[in-house]
Amino acid sequence: MSQQTQSVRTDVADSSRAPKWGKSDTLWTLSLFGTAIGAGVLFLPINAGIGGIIPLLIMTAIAFPMTFWAHRGLTRFVLSGKNEDSDLTAVVTEHFGLGAGSFMTILYFLSVYPILLVYSVTITNTVNSFMSHQLGINPPPRALMSFILVAALIFIVRLGQDVVVKVMSLLVFPFIAVLVALSLYLIPNWNTALFKTFDLETASQASGHGLIVTLLLLVPVMVFSFNHSPIISSFAVEKKKEYGVHADKKTGQILMAAEGLMVVVVMFFVFSCALSLTPENLADAKAQNITILSYLANHFDNPVIAWAAPIIAMVAVAKSFLGHYLGAAEGFEGLVIEAAHARGKELKRTKSLSTITLIFMLITAWLTAWSNPSILGMIETLCGPTIAILLFLMPMYAIHKVPALQKYKGKASNYFIFFMGLIAFGTIFYNVLQAF
């Protein structure tokens, strides 16, 4: 056998073996893990536990495969681009045309902007609850309080994007550590009330729905709480540059580690909160339109929980608001620029456009916070469904249409993710019908 043939075979063998786990893989695992765990998890125990132990057990069984397969599908879609540095929008344009690229800009905005509105309501309710129950004072009129809080958060963003991003990154892991510590601290308060709901009639009375409807409404909240799709495009692009042909395997390994960490931490927090209360308590928390931490603070006669929980909630919600403001502002400016281009006008990101964006965000976030809509209702009707289109439905559609993704076609995981995406999206119609 010639030396050249041996060399070729060695190269083929090396190319089939993915590189070993490196430092950058660990950093990305932590980044994905940290991005996913934010204020969204503060609502999951309410919807998960309100129907009792059965929805909780089912959610525990599907949480990891649902989260891992969905984010892996979106990652593979970004990796399918011809160019090494093609991000999500560029890959959509490459595979489906300019019209689809414009649609992706709209979809990105719609997947981030409603979350900003959710956090506007949440920060107002959290601060009002803290002032009423912990400080013992009457909060100002809601119109004034909501404006002050939203304006203050947006003002922080205006101080400097780099500062905001740095502060948020520093807060991620202390927040996760505190969530775990609080979950452990609640263990002495665990009770068996949740297990009485093995009786489906009792569970239905607590949630206000039958078991099937309770499970269906839980899906968009899970999509919302376990979501870190905004960082997937950057993750896929960087790993494609770093690992080339091995990018799919390496991103799969990193996602598996990140989702595993996330599901363990979040589910421990969900179970600890749910086991500390009753389904009726959780229904009360939903009716009060507050986070689980605010409810815990008001429910237990415990000074540590009473003061620590709402402060943690305020920090978490403020952090998530700031992060989603950056994404929503970027998406809004992108829509304005594309609209100008459609009319044949050249428009760039200027201070004037930034000011217009700020005014739009301030007014809409303030009016939403003032009106105080149901937070979980917004998640079920707006946030979960729009995220599901981007994260669940679009990548699965691409697998069946894009030649570069045909090798992933026909897998059972694809049908599972597409089905879960349809459920999350379908809650829009259920909630609209319920409104009439």
UniProtKB/TrEMBL annotation:
NCBIfam families: stp. It is a multi-pass membrane protein. The gene is sdaC. One of its GO terms (molecular function) is symporter activity. Its main location: membrane. It catalyses: L-serine(in) + H(+)(in) = L-serine(out) + H(+)(out). One of its GO terms (cellular component) is plasma membrane. Keywords: Cell inner membrane, Cell membrane, Membrane, Symport, Transmembrane, Transmembrane helix, Transport. It is found in: Cell inner membrane. This is Serine transporter. InterPro entries: Amino_acid_transport_2, Hydroxy_aa_transpt. The chain crosses the membrane at residues 27-46, 52-70, 105-123, 143-160, 167-187, 207-233, 254-277, 304-322, 352-369, 375-394, 415-433. It comes from the Bacteria.
